[in-house]
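G., before I forget:
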Amino acid sequence: MKPAPFAYHKARSLEDAVAQLAAHKDARLLAGGQSLIATLNMRLSSPTLLIDINGIGGLDRIELKGDIVEIGALVRHAQAERSDVIARHAPLIARALPHIAHPAIRNRGTLGGSVAFADPAAELPACLLALGGEVEASGSKGKRTIKADDFFKGLFETALAPDEILTALRLSTAKADTRIGFAELARRHGDYAIVGLAASARADGKKLADVRLAYFGVGDIPLRPRKAEAALMQGSVEDAVAALDLAPNDDVQATAMTKRHLAGVLLRRVAKQLMEPLHA
Amino acid sequence: MPEHSLDLALTVNGETVNERVDARTTLVDFLRDGLGLTGSHVGCEHGVCGACTVRVNGEIVRGCLMLAVQCDGAKVETIEGLSDSGEVADLQLAFEQRNALQCGFCTPGMVATAQDLLKRVAVPSREEIREHISGNYCRCTGYHAIVDAVEAVARARAEGMKP
């Protein structure tokens, strides 16, 4: 199908984009467009105005600021894949990126757009949650930061106000004792996951501390199974699997029962990754 | 004021194009319907099949997931351009020799994607080839012949020979 008619505005600055967003209730922001244009083509969404933010300067940088990696909203997946800063300081993101769609899509899709779109089966929202990262947003009331734990509110719904724009993602840099894990199951490489799991932890002697598990594809938002996290910190992978309290629905890809089973399979795989130092 | 149609200036296969387009026109529809470049195909229209793959500023993209108006000032290359310049002649020959196409619907996107890989990795493994073309559906060949063709061209280029 073809998109319903809409007007197009190429934003000159962040302020301009915020002003347009505040002035038009039915407007949508166009970043990489790899989810948005698909929904327009299928007429799942029919905004009256697209505000193209691709021309706004300064949003396409990956910067190391002390022990924070700041990823501008317009950084594209392919750019992040080639980034030494991401590879060294945000290894969970580096590990997840090859699973995201296909090269032609990674050339356009943005990290900020993926988080703001908040598809429950997407990799990056779960990575942000697993890393306990933050989102920086600008709106007509100014700038603020939102913690990942408070950002995802419901199906394709975030804490962003209607006139707010996500401008950057902020992640703590990986330390010597940082552990990460990532695994997903998809029918075809690059497709949305049937179930996926992103995780981070801190090595504490032979145990794991600060375990953060973030499942995707099993609910309306990326989900942290807190009981399983606690069990993993106690040292038992099987107890953690048994403590999983996910309640996925059947979808076109798999039944709820299959998804629950696969969530356990992924937890065992990811727990194994968490036991391995980053730079062995 | 935001507008529903805009003036667009870009180069397509090296030629300057100035057109007025509706904001809602996707790049692939603009190329096919506006410029008559029907080598880029329209399959799923939501980024899954890869039949509309073209190059914008040197990088492959989905023609159905970019708007034509986003290409103002851009350098767009389609399979027609890649063919005419001879850049993918060896890939096209290898596809033909190995029956790496039957109906041909996926072939322009498949060739553009394969060329993108071979520009980055001189001799990719079969696994790397499969991963790079994972976003391009072929419903005829079962992919083996396509992987064979791409692998043969990679080796031949590395050895400075014809496949």
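Chain B touches chain A at residues 2-4, 6, 22-24, 26, 29, 45-47, 50, 53, 59-62, 64-67, 69-70, 113, 116-117, 130-132, 134-136 (CB under 8 Å). Residues 5-82 of chain B form a domain with the Ubiquitin-like (UB roll) fold (CATH 3.10.20.30).

More on Monday.
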